[in-house]
Write the structure tokens for this entry.
Amino acid sequence: MNYRKNNNKVLYGILLITIAILMFLSSFELLPPGIITQAISYTLIIFGLYSLLKRDFYKGLFAIAFGFKFSPIILIQYLDFNKIGWFTLIFITFLLATGLETLFGKKFAWRKKYKDGRFVGAEFSNKASNQDDLAGEYVMASVNMGESSRYISTTNLKEADLKCNLGSLSAYFIGSQIQNDININVDCRFGNIDLYLPRDWHIQDNIGVSLGNVDIKQNRPKSDYTVYLNGSVNLGNIDVYFN
């Protein structure tokens, strides 16, 4: 069971129900004017601050910016967000988030440890370099504001870390073999990741999705080992193909 996904579903479910109740009460004028906008704004700001604590700068800053835009009176009065157009606000937020992500974003300098697809700790690791052709037990590939393809070919793959920000990454595992359960960890933000896996690999999807999509093609092989897909997708897309 993916507890992280279940927690997200519960959170989103409660949020939607709360908004529906507020809208219903507002329709009968049982709430003060503007209460719905205020509630949405505060929710976005709190969610944004929580995301910043997790170093999720894109999600955090955009949530905070939209929160102030929807309800400018939350901030100091002479900082009126109504004077900032949507395009300007989005562009400024994007630049700020990209800068913070570059300086303080999560790096793949350490390897996450999973057991049965669940995070159990972390340790430093020497991974294969970010080249077009990758080999070794632990491999890593990342793309920032670009497009790239990586070919992973190893006889004993144990873990792979893939990161894509504002770009497109294609990772080919067709020539790889596994001798045990493995983890493929993904971090996709404002981008697209395509995974090409051998058709005999059994996949367990543990990816958390926020305003994105994970599409895994039909996969029901009889395999002794399991490939755990871990990580997150924020305003992005992941497609998994089997060959």
Q: What stands out?
A: DSSP finds four helices and 13 strands in the chain. Helices lie at 3-27, 35-53, 57-70, 86-104. The chain has a mean pLDDT of 75. The longest strand covers residues 202-210.
